[in-house]
Structures are given as C-alpha cells and as structure tokens.
Amino acid sequence: MKFNFQGAGIVRGFVETARNFLGSYYDPERLTTVEYPERKLALPENVRTVPFLVYDHDMSGLRCTACKICEQECPAACIKIIKDTVKKSDYLGKSQFQPQVFDIDIAVCMSCGICAEVCPFDSIKMDQVYELATQDRFAPLILHKEQLGKSNAYFHAIHPTDAVETDSLRDEAKRKAETKAAADAAAKAAAAVKPKPEISTTANSQSVGTSATANVEKAVAT
Amino acid sequence: MHTLEEIKNLVEQNVPGAVVQIVPNANPALAGSLLLDSKSATDVAEYLRDVAELKFDLCSNVTGIDWPSKEVKTKIKKLVDGVEKEVEEITKTPAFLEVVYHLYSTVLVHGPLALRMRTIDRAENNRVPSLTLVWRSCELQEREVYDLFGVVFEGHPDLRRLLMWDEFKHHPMRKDYVPPVDEGDAVEVSA
Amino acid sequence: MSTLRKEISNGSFCGGIDVDSPLRHFSGATRTTNTNGFAHDLLEISMGPHHPSTHGVFRMDVIVDGEEIVQLKPVFGYLHRNHEKLAEKNSYLGIIPYTDRLDYICSMTNNWAYVLAVEKLSGFQATERAEYIRVIVSELTRLFNHACLVGFLLQDMGALGTPLMYAFREREKILDLFESLTGSRMMCNYMRFGGVRCDLPEGWLDEAKKVVSDYPGFIDQFEALITGNEILLARSQGVGVLSRELAISAGVTGPMLRASGVNYDIRKTDKYGIYSRFNFRVPLGDHGDVFDRYMIRVLEMRESLKILEQALNQIPAGPIIDPKAKNRGLRPKAGEVYSRIESPKGELGFHIISDGSASPYRLHIRPPSLINLTILEDMCLGQTIADAVIILGSVDIVLGEVDR
Amino acid sequence: MNSLDQIFVTLKQWLLSYVPTDFQPVGSALLSIVAIIAVFGTAFALTTILERKGLGRIQNRPGPNRVGPCGFLQPMADAVKMLTKEDIVPYAADKVLHYLAPIVLTVPIWLAFAVLPFGRNMSAIELDASIVFFFAVGSASELAVFMAGWSSHNKYSLIGAMRGIAQMISYEVPLVLSTVPVLMLSGTLNLNEIVNAQSGFSFGVGQWNVFTPWGAAGFLLFMIAATAESNRAPFDLPEGESEIIAGFLTEYSGFKYALFFLGEYLGLFAVTGLAVTLFLGGWNAPLAFLNVVPSWLWFFAKFGALIAVFIWARGTVPRLRFDQLLNFAWKFIVPLTLVNIAVAGIWYFSSDHLAYAVRWLICAGIFLGFYELLGRFLSLKRAPRTYRYAE
C-alpha cells in the first residue's frame, strides 16, 4: 500500500485525464469516433438493417414465391404479401407464384432478421443500408416490391459468404432438378415408344408434364 | 431440497389450519407447485420463510395468470335409449385468476418452490391475501398483478396501479381484454 | 424522520398551506414543523419523467424538507409496452427479438434467459460450442454493462461524462465484436433454442481475445481516474445503505445483493449453462452502500475477464445448434417452467406457461431492474436529492426492463 | 521592447490627444471600457470553444470541429442561435425579476475588471483599495442568482438558488481570507502595488508570491474558493445538471441564458485575473531574461493557463454534495486559510533569523502538517475498504 496523502485520489485523477488529453493527440486508438458523413466505417459482413428481396438477373427473376412464411413469422407483423394470380416458372423450371404486392413497413420493422432466417427460397435477405431517414413518417417508409428487389450481385457485394453458400446450394438444386428432368424426359421418351392408344395425346402430354413437376418438387424436397 | 410432498407434510403438520394442495406440472421442466388457500396463505408463507430446514427467504417472482372459463369437450359413454353411445359432453372449466410465487433460499441455496393462490372467480371475488408483509419483494410485483390482471391483494400496504395510469379502467393482461383501436395511427400498409 | 413520514402517509400534513408563506404558490409546498420546532415548508418535486438522471422515463415523486427527502414514491409505466401480452400473440421464435428490447443494453443475456426457459420447457440441450459462445457473449455483455453503469453513476455524481466516455470507448470495442458476430450492435437476436443463430466469423476469437486482454488496462485506468477520488468516497460511502436482511427480503438480486454481503450468484447456485466449468470468484461487499455497489461491479468485471479467458481458450469446434431443436413452429409440451439467469442487473427470470400451442399461454418476465427498485424509498429517506440521484444510479435500472 | 510593452498605453494616449481636455477623463474611461469589453468578450468566446474542445480531448473525442476552421467559429454559431431563440418567460414567473437577474449578474462583473492590472501601467483605474472594490462588486452575483431562482417560479430553480446563495456566501470567506497573507506581506490593498512587490528576481526567478510556502498554499486555497465562487465543477451545485436540471437557470432561454453564461464566465475571468495578480506575479515575467516579452502577454499567458486548469478540473472530478460542500468550506478551507495567515506571519518574522531554505521548509511543514492532520481528522469515518470473495 503506497502512502496516500489527503487528496491523492484527486491528484491521480488529474494525472489520468491529462494522460488522456495528451494521448488523444498522438494515439489514434483513443479517438474512437469518426467524422461520420465524410468518413464511413466499413460494415462487417453480418450487419443487418432492413430486409430486401433477391432477384436473379432482373425483377422478373424475383426468388420470392409469395409463400407468406415471413409474413407469418415476422414478430412485428410488418410484411404484407399478396400472391399474384398467375404462376411463373422459377429457376428450377417449376411454376411458382410470385408476389403481386410485397410491402415492408420499415418504420415497424425491427431488423431482427427472422424473415431472412425462415425463408426457404433464399429470397429475403437483410440489407445494409442505414441512411433511411425520410421527411414523411408514413408513405416513404413503406417499401414496395420495386424498392425491395435487389440483384443477386448486390447480395454478393454485401454478404459474400452467405451469397456464395446460397448460390452453391441453388446450383446444386438446379443441377439435381435438371438431371431429374433429363431422366424424366428419357423415361417419357421410353414411355412414348409404347403409346397407349386409349388416351389422347394432348391429355397424355399434359399429365406427363404435371408428373414431371411433381417429381422435381420431390427432388427439391429431398 | 425437499420434495413437494415433504414440504406439504411439513406445512400441514406445523401450520395449524393450513390447507395445501399439490398442483402437478404436466411438463418435466419444473416440479409441481403448492396451492394455498386464502385463509392460511400468509401463515404458510411465513413458515416457509422462517423454518430452518426450508428457509425460503427470497421470493423471486410473482406471476399473475388469467384462466377464463373454457369449454372442454369430453367424450363419455352414456345409455341413450337403452343403447350405450359415446356422447360429447361440454363442461365449462372454472374461471379464476391465479398468482404464482417462486421461492428460493439464499441460505440453503435451493429452489424454486412455486406457490399458487387462486381467486374464486374473475369478477367480484378476485381477492387473495397479499404476501408483501412476508416478502417485501412482492410489493411492486403484486401491484403489477393487480394492475394487469385485477387481482386484489388483501393486506397490501400500497395497492395502486403500477404500469398503467390510475384512470385506466381495464386489466390489459386478461385474456378477454380488447385493446382500443388507435384510429389516428391506423395506416394502410399496401399502397 | 419516522414520525414525519408517518404523518405524510396518513395524509395529516396536507392542507396546512399558509397563505402568508412565500412558497404558497408552489402547489406541493406544505407546512410542517421540524425537530427544532421551526415551522417550515415541505416541497413536492416531481423528478422525472424527463429528468437528466433518471436513466430514462422514470419518475420519482419526492417530498423534500430543504434538500432532505422525507418521501419518495417511484412512478412507473412511461415505457410500458406490455411485452407479456405481445408474447402471447407471437410464436416462440418471434419472441426472441422482443427480449432484446427488455434491457436494451444487455440483449445477449435476455436472449439467453428466454432461450434457456424454452429449452427447459421443450427438453432441448444446447450444443457444446453454443454453450461456450453463450458464456462468452454474456460475459462480454456483463463487462460493458458494468462499465457503463459505473460511468453513468459517476455522471450522476457530476463527473461530466469523462468516466462515461471512457466506459463507452471500451463498450464500443465489444459492440464491434457483437456487430461482426450477430449483425447488430445492441439488438443482437442471437440465441436460438438448442444453440445460437450463426457461428463465429473467422478471426472473431482472436479479436475477442485482444479485447479481453486489453480490458484490464481500461479497468486500471478507470480506477486510477476515480476509485480513490476523495469526492467519490465522500459522496458514496454511507449513502443509500441497504441492509443484508432487507436486501434479501426485497428480492434484490445481482451486484446490489452482493454489495450487501449476501453470497448469492445464480451462476454459482444454479450452475446454468456451463458455468460450473469455470474458475471464478464472487466479490462481496460489507456495507451495502453506493460505494460498495460501485466496487462490486468493478471487481465483477475482473472476474468476468477470468471466465472469458478460460472460455475463449477452451471453446471446442462443433455444431452451433442442435439439429433436433425446432425453432420455427415450436410447440412445447404443455406445462410451466420458471428459469432464471444472472443477468448483469440481477436475476432475470422467465416464467412460461405453455398450453401446447405455438405461442405461450402466459409469459412472465421477472425484471431485476423493477424489483431492485422496491427498496428505493427505503434507501433514499433522510438523504438529499443529490443522493437520491446516485442511489438510483447505483441500482442500475434500464427502463425498457422496468416497464416492459 | 518598451514600445511594444506600452503599445496599448501609447495608443490610448494618442487617441486621447484628439479629445478636448475637458472630456479627457470621460474619454479615457470609455476607451478602457471598450477595450475591456472587447478583450474579455473575445476571451469568453474563445474560452467556450476551447473548453469544449479541451473537455472533448480529455474524454477522447475531438470536440466541436464543424463550424469554421477547426470549429473556431462555433461561438458565433452559438451566439446566433442564442439570440434568435424564443425568450420564454414562465407564466407564473415574477417577470421583472426574471428580466433583471441576468443584467444584475453581468453588469457588476464588468466593474471588477476596472481594477485589474493587465500589464505595466495597464489598469483602467488606480484605486488604493482596489482589492476591496473587487470583492465588493464581485459579491453582487449572489443577488443575481437568487433573483433568477426565485423569480422563475420553478422548484428546481428555487433549490438551485438556495444552494447558490449558501455556497457563494460560504466561499466568499475563504476567498477573502486566502488573500490576506498577500496583503499582509506586501503591505498594500492596491493591486498595482501588489504586482510591483512581486517584480524582483532572485537567482533569475521571479519573486512571485506563489514561490513562497504561504503563497503556494494561499494560491491553492484561493483557486478552490474561486472555483466555488464562480460555480464551476466540482462546485457547480447551483446548476447541478444531474440533480436539479439546471438549477437557477432552468427557466432561462435565449438571450437571457446567454447573458447568464457570459456573466458566469466573466466572474471566472475576474477571479482568475485576481489570482494571477495576487499570486503569480501579475504581468511580471517568470525569468529575468524573459522580460523582453511584453508584460500584457505574460498576464494573458498566466490567465490562459489558469483557465485551462479550471477546464481540466471540470473534466476530472465529480461534484460534491451540498452539505459536504459547506463542510468543506467551513471545516477545512477556512481553518487552513487561518493557518496560512499564521504561516505568513512566521515567514515574515523569521526572515532575519533563518536561512531561506530552512524558513521555507519550516513554513511549508507547518502548513502541510495541518493540512494532512485536518484532512485525516475530517475523513476519520472513512476507513479503507477490503472486499471478500466467495468461491
């Protein structure tokens, strides 16, 4: 125990603040703040702010199938989805719905990322934009499908690890689907050698078509 | 740590007039709890706090639960027109409010022991004795239960609303509470 | 003082407003007589909900005699969202982000408390690696919570933000770790039933080790700045004394309870998670005053560092989440559970009653901040306004948790 | 060298030469007033920005750096903001007092600058009892604080005013008592002569009062009392922002608030100027060969250094509690100032009998002994604490 005169604690405090005062001039470690609008810190890969929708190539390649799982699971209930009336073929060649309306109220969204976590189609992901202030607190804060949709390249830019992983999974699924489709087509060709006379050709092709999609679905599921 | 049966026996032997029931827990996560009756609850609580082999001196948590009446369908076999038939009978479960206390001991380091108290119904007979004088930690928590569930704690020194404002009429944690629609803030999400 | 307090609680002091009193236009001013027989006025002050040092929208209705407090009634509810009702409408998974917002400084420990309760309810077990990650992030949370608390406490004492800024500088480093791990600095939403949401990014452990090894330097610096300061000693010693018996009876938990000399740390008593594997001590105070609460937190930071060093070196490889544990659409077996952890503020408990459906029938949070405020008035009586502020600061409340 | 030293004096005389003889006294006074207001107005603006930057650096942040080069136009921006802000007077306030309080605070403070010697031949008026004049006008600030707190009709303001008045009156006593040794040993109440008494050099070092044991002790005591007198941290209880919002300033906004702010800083400047004059040799150079530097530069250099110490203290120490503040004044500072007067007496009468170094050590020993003993006695209740650990 060192000798403590009266007021020693205060004097030590003065020494400490003086050290910090001087240190802030030569030790950049001490100055943790950055001059914000001019200088922005690089964001870690995992950073999440509000959700966005990934599309391949262009908006028509939106991965979202309007399955509404995210709408259901969103703790803040800030997602609104209306299914389109027509189906489109997705990247696996499977026909799927796309959302007609996909709105996220980012004033309500709490950036928890559960939507991205539960999405089975790797469609909804978390964005990294953070300058979201608007002058009106209602309409501009509701993001529509057009604002939400962003390219896969953008996804690659902000979450490279996740995006590469997602792409490899999707490629895998696509490859499987293609081999499956090829196998089905071969089977179909084999079946076509011995056509059953009692079924009309149009009906036959239709039924084969649906069974092929059903097989693809199975392939994706397994 | 004693088992619930042992605690029940201890209480019944040592607290005159104590009526204690064991309420089993369907989930293995936690042992069941002791249901106290209104008359002897404070005596039992004091006994649990003070007796050397239990020493439940820390009342950790007070939870209020609302059990509105539910319709339960049970299938029973009945003679209808001389033929034995399976008939669905609808019975109503009793409606009551429940307060659960979780006790621990800082001296003997054991717990939790859950105590329950039930009101007779959810309307007028919504009273249970307050345990604030036994464990001070119940003071704010019982106020919270009073505020959110409407359980009146008899003997509580300062029973006021805790979280809602004094003029508020309802008890928002009750299952049948309907929150008011704030029309000013209603915004259509889709555009 | 006690007779005066009784008078007030009986309401007999009301109505004695003297028309000639120069204070007559102060609505709260009421006339009383002190021990010397001088007639004088009491003043009712509403401290809060927008007061600089009530740590949020908290209000204390204070009646003062001069500057001496004769009555203090805490008023809650300005930040009430009824989290418990929200939980009844949400899925078990969807509740996790809401728990972040209870004690919004320590989202990690809130996550853990809730996840642990649900795991008990549904019989899941977190994986080995996840257990280690949970301990690491929780102890990091404890580090910056305590650092901020002592910073805020000294801010309340009038130290003009210097200690607070130093604390924030360190907190920043830990928040950076959380950001790169979970994607969010404060609202981590990181834990899941049976494990954690995502694995540690590459190099994270090394960064964490660096933060942990630099941290003692910060504590030393902080202590040199303020611990021996005579003004701090004069302000905090003997102020807001909480006796051991009252502390236990009032359900006070956490560092506050240990400052009153009660050896009760849930990490030791319940051994939840894998805390039994780590070698650490529980610091105890003997006086139960503001200074003890300050010192216990400083010493706890040093103990947390020990846990962190061990955990960071022992963490095994392996899966981060139990594949059998269901997160989405979880319907636990009916029944109830009460589970608690040692959050930085005290005992954080979750009482969940499941009816077998996808959302809990009833979810109750045992908020340490609220229950530690039970004895606020007892600690403040006879002290001055300036003391009330630092006593409140030493309790360590976060209004998100108090009002829920 | 001499011309540079006397440049302001020469300038004033040159300007006065154009004024008719009858109006020369008035003209001289006006010129001095303009000069003081200009110099200390600028000092006020500079201090606010430097204080914020300094505190920022102490707290490891850059401080304001957006307005103008390195943020040095921040005071201008603040002034514009203050002046354009709505002046809110509470409905139930005593409007006259509420209006007058900032004026009552600011005007007398300016008077105090009249007697301070800023350089060789550079004090606005020559008064024989100038230090008495200084303390007399300085005590007007108590009134202003109380007027502000009372008239605001706000409980926090009232508490702040009560604190302020008790604090300022309590610290007036040690403030005056700590100057007594200086007056005793220089034998005059005239600030100019006190500076002249410190103008010699021994071994090339200035014979400032602060280099004597009683002077050093008196300087420290004076600085502590001055901090309290000007409501600066750690004695900023009347404002105590973490306890009573802003104390007596709670209900002030806009220009009136700016005036209070100005008044507080001017009060600080005035006592700092007095500390420089009494203890730090006024405008004298510290070392003999530095006499080439103009005297007014020395004054402002010392002045700036002392202001920096105040800022440093503000960034370091927590605030005292009210009863502790008064105890500190009456039980610790006042007895020490009395001891210091005795020490000064010993110093004076031992000059013929003892060697300088011996004299120095004895006097310093007496004071430090009292300091340590009294401090220990007052903190007897505070035993060092140890903490137990449970495994």
Q: Strand order within the widest sheet of chain D?
A: 1-2
Helix and strand element order of chain D: HHHHHHHHHEEHHHHHE
Percent of residues in helices of chain D comes to 55-70%
3D shape of chain A: elongated
> Mind summarizing the main beta sheet of chain D?
2 strands, antiparallel
Structural class by secondary-structure content of chain A:
alpha+beta
Task: Kindly describe this structure.
The complex is a heterotetramer of chains A (222), B (191), C (404) and D (391). Chain A has seven helices and six strands, in the order H-E-H-E-E-H-E-E-H-E-H-H-H. Chain A is of the alpha+beta class and 222 residues long. Among the domains of chain A are: 1-32; 51-170, 2-Layer Sandwich (Alpha-Beta Plaits), CATH 3.30.70. The longest helix of chain A has 34 residues, at 160-193. Chain A is elongated. Chain B is α/β, with parallel strands linked by helices. In chain B, the strands form three sheets. Chain B has a five-stranded mixed β-sheet with strand order 1-2-7-6-3. In chain B, strands 4-5 form a two-stranded antiparallel sheet. Mean pLDDT of chain B is 82; it is low at 186-191. The two termini of chain C are 34 Å apart. The model of chain C is unreliable at 1-29 (pLDDT under 50). In chain C, the strands form three sheets. Chain C has a four-stranded antiparallel β-sheet with strand order 1-2-3-4. Chain C has helices at 2-10, 83-89, 92-100, 107-122, 128-156, 162-182, 204-227, 230-236, 244-249, 255-259, 266-269, 290-314, 368-372, 376-380, 385-395, 399-403, and strands at residues 30-33, 39-47, 59-65, 68-75, 191-192, 195-196, 282-284, 335-343, 346-354, 362-366. In chain C, helix 4 packs antiparallel against helix 5 (128-156), helix 5 (128-156) runs antiparallel to helix 6 (162-182) and helix 6 packs antiparallel against helix 7. Chain C has 404 residues and is of the alpha+beta class. Chain C is globular. Chain D has one domain (85-377). In chain D, a hairpin with a 2-residue loop joins strand 1 (201-202) and strand 2. The radius of gyration of chain D is 23 Å and the shape is globular. The model of chain D has no long low-confidence stretch (mean pLDDT 85). Chains in contact: A-B, A-C, A-D, B-C, C-D. The A-D interface holds A 5-7, 10, 13-14, 16-18, 20-21, 23-25, 30-33, 35 and D 54, 57-62, 312-313, 315-317, 371-372, 375-376, 379.
